[in-house]
Structures are given as structure tokens and as C-alpha cells.
Amino acid sequence: MIFLDNASTTRTDDECAAIALKYMTENYFNPSAPYHVSVELSNEINRSRENILRLLKGEGKIIFTASGTESDNTALFCTKKKHGSRIVISDAEHPAVRKCGENLTSLGYDVVYAPVDEAGRVKTEEFRKLINEETSLISIMHVNNETGAINDIKTLVSMAKKINPSVIFHSDGVQAAGKIKVNLKDLNVDLYSFSGHKIHSPKGIAGLYIKKGVNIKPYLIGGGQEFSLRSSTENVPGIMAIEHALSKQITAMDFNLSKVSDLRNKIINNLDNEKYKLISTGECSPYIIMIALKKVRGEVMLHSLEKYGICIGTGSACSSKKIDKKASFGAYLPEEYKRGLIRVSLSRFNEENDIECFINSLNLEYNTLIKYI
Known about the structure:
Elements: E1 2-3, H1 14-25, H2 36-55, E2 60-65, H3 68-77, E3 86-90, H4 95-106, E4 110-114, H5 124-130, E5 135-139, H6 153-163, E6 168-172, H7 184-187, E7 191-195, E8 206-211, H8 236-251, H9 253-269, E9 276-278, E10 288-293, H10 298-306, E11 310-311, H11 327-330, E12 341-345, H12 352-369
Parallel strand pairs: 1-11, 3-4, 3-5, 5-6, 6-7
Antiparallel strand pairs: 2-8, 7-8, 9-10, 10-12
Helix pairs in contact: 1-8, 2-8, 3-4
């Protein structure tokens, strides 16, 4: 199989799988128990927590969650904000944020959407116009999960806090952490989400960075774990695995970026401009490429490539049944390209022969499918 849908999930790294197994079969104790082995396990969790904070260069604390979606939900629902105040999110957010925005609207908040360009990147000046003294919360993703477009979070944070210094700024960093350079202190975000299964850790583990001095309400109430913000027995295997995954990704970041950039360029350089349009333009993560096919539906191409053992995406796997979700990108396209969006997303496990097979198969299937249009 050639897996080119790594923005949806990634293969678990062998070392991460071994670490998770160890904490399921050997060090399987409950960290909240009073005996020595559990106390030591609790200390290991805290060491992992501090190491992740160091790797992401943050000043504050990390709470562990079960998913990027949970981290995003915690950021949007558990921040303290005046009822009816303004909330700004981008028009190209992941459903984990956008659906929260819709819910907050129904609760009486003034939720507004920052316009994005053809790659899903927030338009800076239009974003500025949305911020006012009544703005309590902003959520802008760091790397767009469908196009790879990188938002200038540092600039957006600075812009927002000049208008209202008390605004809470959250960024969904699920497609950024471990893949591009992240310095949370430099970005000056208040909250930042990240997820394990996007960087070769097992599913079911993620985190939320909370800047020092930022207060949020508890998400789950119970035994007082995670600073009493998310009570429940800790996912120790996941915590140990995500720390290792993040450390491994960041240690090898320059190598990985160089390798993946070469693979991305190979795809882009082999696109026939008469058949395909590149959506992922401007400053983008090399891990994600969105392409529009002329007259051929993206979903049809996805299934056509399956017979070669090639897996690609058509956008966010969390909302793959909602074809119209990509209106933000399709709005900029000629009509004949609007239904042809596909997403190719890479990982450090992909090799050059994977890309050659994909390009050859894509062209072959396109030439076949176009005959039936």
C-alpha cells in the first residue's frame, strides 16, 4: 500500500508502539494510586509533560487529552468569556473548531469568520477589521489541514492583542507540531492544540498547551487529574508514546522537511497545468498538497487510485461525507475544477518510488476518466 493520506492519520512508529506496549503490559499501574510504582509512574508523566513543553518552547503547562478535537473543544468552550462577546475563527477551520463556533452562536455569542485566500490562509487586513474591544476569543489554525497553508500566527496574535490585550488566542496546531518549527513563546498564543496520531504516535492521545497566567474551566470533573482540568485516569501508554513521537520528529525536523519537500516538489513538477490546478500555493507545509482536477470529481479519483493500492484524501477525514465543505477553496476556481479537489499528504515514511507510482497512476486514471465526461 502507498499511503498518501497522512493528514488524516499516520502509521505508528515502531519505537512508539513498543513504548506504548511497555506501559500496557509492564508499567500498567494507575498513576493516582499511593504505592511506589504508581508514584514513580506519576513522576514519569510529569517528566514527559515538561519535556513536551520544552520541545514546543512554551511557558505554561500541557494537559493531555484524547484527541485534537477534544483539545479544540476545551479551548473554545472552557475559556472564560463574557456572554454575547465576539469570537473570531477563520473561514477554513477544521470541523473541531468550526462546529464549536456554530454551537457558540446558538448560545448567544457573536461568532464571526475571518476570510481566507484561495489556499485557506487568513487575510490579515480583513482579520484585523473583525477584532474589537468586545472580542474575547480567537481561534486560527496554524497549518490548514486541507491545503497545508501556514498562517502567520505570530502576526495575527500581535495584531489582535494590540486592539484588545485581554483576548484569548487559540491555535489548532495539529498539522504543525512536529512537522514545522513551533516556538510557542515566540508565537505568543494562549492555547495551542496538538495530536499524537498525526506524528506517528498511537491514536487516542493529544494535548493542549495553556500559557502561564491563562485560566480555563474544567472540561471533565472527577478525580482531579491534569491540574483538575480534565479528570480521568491518565492514558499512560499514549502519553509516553506522544512524547517520544514529538521528540523524534523535532530532532529530525530538518531532515524530514528536506525529504518531504523533495517529494512535494516532485509531485508539483509533474502536474500538467492543463489537467490540474495547484491549490497549495504560497507559504505551505510541504506535508500537504491540495490539487484540483479539471472536470474529474475528486472522490471518483480517490476510489480509482485504490485499485493501485494508493490512498489519498479529498479533505478532512473528519467530515469526508460533506462534499461542500471545501467551498472556501472552490470559490476561487473555475467551475470545471470545483468538484475535483484531492489532497495528497506525506510523511517521513514515504519514498520517491511512492510518488512516481502516484504520478503515473494519477495521469493514467485521469486520461481514462476524462473520456467519460
